[in-house]
Amino acid sequence: MTALRGFGVGAFVFLAFALAASKAWALPAAAQDLPTANPLPADVEQGKQSFEQRCSTCHGLDGGGAMGPNIQGIPMRIGAPQVASTIKNGMSGGMPAFGGQLTDAQIQQVIAYLLTLTRKDSGAVTGDAAKGKEVYDASGCASCHILDGQGGDSGPELTKVGALRGPGYLKTTLLYPGSDLPQARVFLETGGLLDYLYIHLVTNEGKTYDGTRVVEDSFHIVIRDAKGNFHSFQKSDLREFKKEPGKSVMPSFKDKLSGAQIDDLVAYLASLKGAQ
Amino acid sequence: MKTLRYAAALGAWMLVSPVYFLAQNVPYDRILHSANEPQSWLTYSGSYNSQQYSPLKQINRENISKLKVAWIYQPSKAVSNLEASPIVADGVMYITEPPSTVTALDVRTGLRLWTWSPTLPEHVVSIGLYATSRGVAILGDSVFIGTADSHLVALDAKNGALRWDVHVADNAMGYAMTGPPLALKDKIIIGSAGSEAAVRGFLDAYDPKTGKRLWRFWTTPRPGEPGAETWGAGAYESAGATTWNNGSYDPDLNLVYWGTGNPAPDFNDDERPGDNLYTCSVVALDADTGKLKWYFQFSPHEDHDWDSDEPPVLFNASIDKKPRKLLGFANRNGFYYVLDRTNGKFIAGKAFVKETWAKGLDENGRPIPAPNQEPTLGAGTLVYPSITGGVDWTSPSYSPDTGLFYVSVHETGAYFIKGTGKIESGPPKGIVGGGGIRALAGEQSYGAIRALVATTGERKWEFKMLAPAWVPVLSTAGGLVFSGTDEANFFALDASTGKPLWEFFMGHSARSNPISYEVDGKQYIFVTAGNTYLAFSLP
C-alpha cells in the first residue's frame, strides 16, 4: 500500500469530513446573527445559574465539554438565533429540548453567559488600528488569512477575530505562533483537539511531510502543507508521526516587526468584529 | 386448482426460507440456551451472562479484510445516536429508534416490516440524560420496550400491535427509561433512569402476559431496613441509585444481577453522609421475589458521577485451581473487579485506567481513599478518571476462547467542582445540586481497547485510539474483537494480540452493542453509526 493515498475515494471521504469539520469553525459570513443586545451583569449571572443547573453536566462548567461537546464561543460561530433554537428545541444526537423548562428570556440569559466563555483575554489595545491595517497589508498576512472574503485560507479566517480573541492573545500569537493553539474538533467528554496543530511525519518509504493537522482519526491523518496542499495518510504507513504543539506554519513576527508595529497590528485585528 | 397452486408456491417458498417470519416465538428455553443457536441474538448482550460474545466464526482472522456493508437501515426520522442493541430471531430483527419507537426489519435486507410508536407527552422530562432507547426484549411472541416517559409496553412480535401498556413511574418527577428490559422465564425486568433529577431508584418485575407488577426492589433502603444507616435523615427518598441499563441472570442460582447509578445530588454530598447504599453497586436479587441476596458497592459515598450501570459480565473460571462462578465488572471508577457471584465476595481488583482517587482496594475490595480528591468549590480538583470514568455504560465483552475481558477505556481526567444546590420538593427543574466538571483538553486524553485477564484484571494488550470512545465491544469465535472509535471508525482486532485487522469509516461513531447473527448460512456483524444501522458480511 502506498503511503500517500492521494485523492482517491478514501481521501475524498476524508476531505469531505475535513471540510465539514473545518466549516464548523469558519466564522459565519452573515453578521446579523451576532447578538446585538447588551446584556446586564444580572442577566449574565442569571444565565450562569441556568447554565450550571441544566447545561454544565454535559458541556462542562466552563463550556469546554464533558459528556457533550465543547460549546465555548458557539454563539459567535453559529449565531445566537441558532443557539437559542437549539436550546429550545434540542437536537438529534442527545441534546434535550429545554423549551419546557426555560423561557425565551432565560435562554437569552444563557447565551449572554455563553458569550463570556468565549476565549478572550484581558489585554488592552495600545496601538493604532489604522496604522495596523497598513502593517497587515504590507506583511503578507492576506496570503494565509481570509478577511471579508479576500485572502488565502491556510490559516484561520480573521473577519471577526476581534470578537473572538482579546488583544493579549493576538499579540502572543504574532510573537509566538503555535504557543497557545485554539481547540477545534470536539469529542464527547474531552475538551477538543488542538486546531492548527503542527505535524511532522515520515512515510515508510522515507518521504517527509510537514504541515498542520486538518483532521485525524485513530487510523488516518490528513495534513495541509505550507503551500495549502492536502496530504492524506494511513498511520500504519508512517515510520514517524510527531505532533509538535509549540510549532506553527505561521512565521513569528517578533524580529520582523517593531514593537510599535506589533501593537498597531494587534489594534487592527482587535477592531475586526464583522459587520454589526 | 388456483388455490392449490398458491399453496404449492407457498410451500416451496417455505422450504427455501424455512424460518421466514413464521415462528416469532421465543420461549424462555431458547434464551436460556442461546449458545445453541448462535444464528440468533435473543437478549441485549446475546445471552444471560452478558458476555457480548458470538460463537459464530465464518468471519475470522483470515477473511476479515473482505468484510463489506451488506445493507443499511435509516429511521424515517433523523434521530442520531442510535444506541439500541437489536434482537434477532427467526428472520426478524427488532430495533428501536429514539425516543421510543420499535421497528421490525427483515433481517436479510433491512426492509421495514412494521413500526410502533407510543404517544409521548409534549415535553418528556429527561434530566441528566437524553431520551434514547437501548432496545427491546423478546419473550414468547411479544416484544417489550421501556419508553422515555417510563411506561413498559408489550407488543405483538408479528405485527407490532399493542398488547399492554403499564405506567411504571412518574416522568414528571424525572423517571425516564433508556435501558432495555430483560426477559426471564415468567418475568420482564426493567429499571429506570433519573438520578440527576433525584428520584429514588428501583428495579421491577412484570408478568409478561398481563403487565401486572410482580415485585419491586427499591435500590435505597427505608429507615429501619438494613443499610438505612448509610444515609442522612430522609435522604434515601431522593437518592438516585437508578437502574438505567440492562442486567444479567444466572439461571442455576436464580439471581438477577443489576448495576445501580450515582447518588443524588452528584457533586454535593453535604446532606447524605455515609456510604449511601445501594448506589454505585451491583445488586444480586432473587428472580422470584426481588429480595436482595447480596450487594457489592464499588464506590461508597460517591461524588464524581461514577454510576455502575454497565451490564455485569458472568463467567466461570478457575481460581487457585478451583472452578468458580464469577462476575467481572470494569467499573466507571477505574477499577476492574472480579466477584464470586454466588455470594458477592471480592476476589480480585485492579485499576484498568489511570486513577487518582483511591490508593488501591482493601482485602474486601473497598477503595482506600486518596486525600484531596473530592470536588471542591471554585477551580475544582483534578481527578482521574473523568466524569465518564474508565468506561461508562458501553458493554465490555468476554471471550471464553481467550479468557480475556475486552473493554473500551477512557484515559482522561477532569477538574471536579462541588455543587451548592440542594434537593427541592416537587417536579425537578433541572439537574439537582449543581457542580460539575471542567474537561482537560483533548490532546491530554485518549481511548483504548484493553484486553484484561478476566480473573485478575492484568492487562494483556491494548489498542490505542485517538480519543475516548463510547462504543461497546463484541468478541467472536472467529478470533475477533469488534468495536469503534469516537471519530467514526468501526474496526476488528485480533482477539489474542490486539492487532488491527480491518477498519471501516462510517461517518459517525457507533453507539450500540455490535452484535452478530447468521441467516441463509451467512454471518453478519451489525452496529449503529449516528442515524444509521449497518449490517456487514463477507461478499
Helix/strand layout:
The complex is a heterodimer of chains A (276) and B (539).
Chain A: H1 9-23, H2 41-54, H3 56-59, H4 74-78, H5 80-89, H6 104-116, H7 129-138, H8 161-164, H9 167-175, E1 198-203, E2 208-216, E3 220-224, E4 230-234, E5 238-244, H10 259-270
Antiparallel strand pairs in A: 1-2, 1-5, 2-3, 3-4
Helix pairs in contact in A: 2-6, 5-6, 7-10, 9-10
Chain B: H1 2-16, H2 28-32, E1 53-54, E2 68-73, E3 87-89, E4 92-97, E5 101-106, E6 112-116, E7 137-139, E8 142-146, E9 151-156, E10 162-167, E11 182-183, E12 188-191, E13 202-206, E14 213-218, E15 248-250, E16 255-259, E17 281-286, E18 292-297, E19 313-319, E20 322-330, E21 335-340, E22 346-351, E23 358-361, E24 367-369, E25 381-383, E26 397-399, E27 404-411, E28 414-417, E29 436-439, E30 446-453, E31 459-465, E32 474-476, E33 480-484, E34 489-494, E35 500-505, E36 515-519, E37 522-529, E38 532-537
Parallel strand pairs in B: 1-32
Antiparallel strand pairs in B: 2-38, 3-4, 4-5, 5-6, 7-8, 8-9, 9-10, 11-12, 12-13, 13-14, 15-16, 16-17, 17-18, 19-20, 20-21, 21-22, 23-24, 25-28, 26-27, 27-30, 28-29, 30-31, 32-33, 33-34, 34-35, 36-37, 37-38
Could you spell the SSE succession of chain A in H and E letters?
HHHHHHHHHEEEEEH
Q: What's the helical proportion of residues of chain B?
A: under 10%
Total strand segments of chain A:
5
What is the number of E strands of chain B? 38
What's the Cα radius of gyration of chain A?
A: 20 Å
